[in-house]
Amino acid sequence: MTKRTFVRKRYWNEPEMGWYEKAYLPEILRGLAITGGVFLRNMAKWMTGKKGALTTYYPEETRWDYARGNRGKHVLVQRPDGSPQCIACNLCATVCPAKVIEIEAAFDPADAAHPKYPARFEIDYSRCVFCGLCVEACPEDAIRMEKEVPAFPSPDRHAMWLSKEELLTWKPARDAAKPYPPRPEGAKDRP
Amino acid sequence: MLADLVVAVLFIVYAISVLMGFGTILTWVERKQAAVMADRIGANRAYIRIPGTQVKLVWWGLFHGMADGLKMLVKEDWKPRTYDWYAYAVAPWVVFTPVLLVFAVIPFGGMLTPAKLFAPLAAWFGDKSYPMQIANLDGGLLIIFAFSGMTIIGAMLAGWSSSNKFSLLGALRAGSQMISYELVLGLTVLGLILVYGTVNLDEMVRHQSGTVLGFLPAWGIVYQPFAATLFLTAAIAENKRIPFDLPEAESELIAGYYTEYSAMKMGLFMFAEFIEIAIIGALFTTLFLGGYNLPFMNDGGFAFPGGATLGMPHGAVVVTQLGVFLLKVFVMCSFQILIRWSLPRFRYDQVLAFAWKFLFPLALANLVVTAVVMWALGK
């Protein structure tokens, strides 16, 4: 067997270094000057009371530049009388990939138009992925998402559930829901 | 006699608290400086709550060091089923102790005359004065090399006794790297010894309080700028930090020679590394940056190049010298951290080639040039 000499492969983007780069020390000093310059610049900002970092200091600070179409929090749409438009069909809870929606349906025989209504409607924000599929799934346009984010986080994960009362705080005047027949006399009072 | 003992104990307590303080603070400084260099905020969540109130002291995350120490103390002290438990148990201390001992010969201040400091002490101390240094030895520099060479033994012991292949590889790398760079370290300092004509560190510092060429402070870095660069490079390699952290390269060897150590034993290795940063800073300050003195300053006050002098009271001199020494050491530590977070790691063959083919010949050339110049000047 003949002994083959090893030939190193040359790459097309191999760095070409002149004597200056090969001397190593000037380039090291240049690198140190760059990092040291960044350090001094940021340090001067901290010293003068400004923020010298790109990091958002999360629970204390939130970013100002949420996207215009950001979907951060669920709202339940109300009828003109203030009851939720939800008919407790459970479609949103079924489609939810993170399984964060919990609905407990109740029956109101006095309201003939929509006898089924949610007695409990809760969303667990510790697991919500904000995909918006619940909004897509809703046949009654009863759940929507708005730009604001709920005032989380919390050190207690049980504090990260939003109940029906909190979801019903959205009362748009312009977008009053579809014209429904007036509420019959004697219908159960639904908060 | 008792007075001497009191002063000695005071110096030892001061030196140890300075070293421990630097070791603790530097863990925080390293994280925080790295964060500021990278446009981040850095460690800032650990806090101490004043009991009974909701007042949380955050103090820019200074308590993260304490939290780390506590974590290491309460962690499980896991041991490998190694056949050499004695070497395994002794190794962290063999690394840690010499690092502390090195500081014994480094002067952290000039002459201290207690009688001049506080009048009531005159009856007790008379006019005795003490150099602010634990041990004023004639062979100070040699002691430093003797002790800092001992840390290799600890690293080798740790790697061998762990009976782990990563540890052994790390130990072998540590051994060859540290011996190579020890040589460079010694050669760079030889030039300085030629200039000063002594290896007593206190006399070296006194020599640096004058002027050279009429206006420059007679610092070692002015006499030997080249040696200063080589010395700092070799010292960082001695300390096994990036860009020379091959013995403990995380991405290759997990943690190198202390892979099998856990809890506070591992903490000792880390702590020794951080104290060694301070030691390197102190050594560089003493040898090249005029030690505990400001430029043109001596034990009596300032003597400016123009011939003007400015006397200072003894108390002011002592406080200035202690403060200036700490400040210089801190700046050097910060510079080492800057290097550690700026440069990428070498390959292992590059580390050794760098020592033997680049630093070693340069150190020799520096020594030869210094010797010739000193001979030409007739000293």
Helix coverage percent of chain A:
10-25%
Termini gap of chain B:
40 Å
Number of individual domains of chain A: 2
Runs of chain A in which pLDDT lies below 50 for 5 or more consecutive residues are none
Q: How would you classify the quaternary structure?
A: heterodimer
The tally of beta strands of chain A, per DSSP, is 5
Strand content of chain B: 5-15%
Number of strands of chain B: 9
As a whole number of angstroms, the C-alpha radius of gyration of chain A is: 30 Å
Describe, in plain words, how this protein is organized in 3D.
The complex is a heterodimer of chains A (191) and B (379). Chain A is α+β, with helices and mostly antiparallel strands. Chain A has two domains: 16-55, no CATH class; 73-167, Alpha-Beta Plaits (2-Layer Sandwich), CATH 3.30.70. Chain A contains five helices and five strands; from the N terminus they run H-H-E-H-E-E-H-E-E-H. Chain A has a three-stranded antiparallel sheet with strand order 2-3-5. Chain A has a two-stranded antiparallel sheet with strand order 1-4. In chain A, strand 2 (101-107) and strand 3 form a beta hairpin. In chain A, 14% of the residues are buried. Chain B has 379 residues and is mainly α. Chain B has one domain (80-376). Chain B contains 14 helices and nine strands. Chain B has helices at residues 2-37, 64-74, 85-102, 114-117, 122-125, 140-161, 165-196, 201-207, 220-223, 225-238, 250-253, 263-288, 314-340, 348-376; strands spanning 48-49, 56-57, 111-112, 130-131, 211-212, 216-217, 297-298, 301-303, 309-311.
